[in-house]
Amino acid sequence: MAALIIVVVTMVLAGLRPKRTREWMWVAAGALLLLALRYEDLASVAHAIAAQWNVLLFILGLMGLAAAAEEGGAFALVAEYVVRSAGGSKRKLFVLLFLAGAVLTILLSNDATAIAFTPIVYRAVAKRGLDALPFLFGCTFVADTASFGLPFANPANVIVLPRPHILDYVIHLAPAEGAAIAINLAIFLVLFRAELRGRYETAEMVEKKEPAAVRTLGAICLVALAYLAALAFDVPLGPVAAAGALVVLAVARVSPKRAASHVSWSTFVLLAALFVLLDPLDRAGLVAWVLHGLHAAAHYGAPAEIAIAAVGAALLSNFLNNLPVAVASAHVVAHAPHLAYPLILGVDLGPNLTTAGSLATILWVSALRKRDIHVSPLEYLRLGAITVPPMLAASILWLWLAR
Fold this sequence. Notes:
The chain is mostly helical. The chain has helices at residues 2-16, 23-36, 42-50, 53-71, 74-85, 90-108, 110-126, 133-145, 155-160, 166-191, 211-232, 237-252, 256-262, 265-283, 286-298, 302-320, 322-335, 340-349, 359-369, 377-402. The two termini are 38 Å apart.
């Protein structure tokens, strides 16, 4: 019970970030407190972290790819092309940037969109005198909304299903993702309709040829193909992401020192501490309790079981962060494989409710903080409360029909 209280208080403080402290500080403090009070020992801590080597290496590779995309000008090339294509319409610009973010998330992962695309979108719209906040919200929401249609679009997917069957995965989750993206975009166009009225200046925009950016973008697409090949041959994605990052960094001619400056090292402290916080809950029977609840839900039919699995994972992800919930979900899937897709849906889509729900959102908040932009957790929750329920409902309906 005491360990549970420590975890609850830790996650509440990480979500609220009192006095603008960082999330990782509270999570690390909670993990150290568990260790100091002997609810965890060093061997258990080491095992909890080492067990996630694949996802940690995958995230490191994604950060390297994001660094290459930003330094090599690939994301800037995409953003500028979108700005020109919008033809001066704020509304069209929002739609095109949202869809560009979806494509980049699908190719590179939600974390890459949050890390690298967000600041580039900010620069692209701010220098034209536009209200940047709607576009920034678009970046973070689409990063999670577009992250469950392919296994490598979110590190959480790699945790829940380390060896997915790609065709079956796409049939179950890609159509649901398409529906969620459409719903998310439609709701945002309504919510931000006042900010997106009117036009922006296009006279001074000229098309520039950036060979390095084109090469970098091409190399990134090749890495995405390597992900698909790895899935086909049952190869872990972590080493592929790390090797792909090295190749793209070389193509973009980014120095190791420059690349390292883009890596959010505190994120790995956060992740390690989150895995440690989950460990005593796992040993206390969290997975067994979840399985019991899902077994009870199955008596009411497949729709109820799918809905409870997805909604439960979504709510827990906003409380504990989605990566530890993905670890717990992997244990559930080991006993109930048919629940893999509903759990991935909840773990990926659900964190749009709060700023602490996913690593991508935490990285997004960090990117905004560097530019002295502060988003209230309540403001974010308001958007999430309007957007997430219909997206979840439509996706759950498809999973029931496709089962």
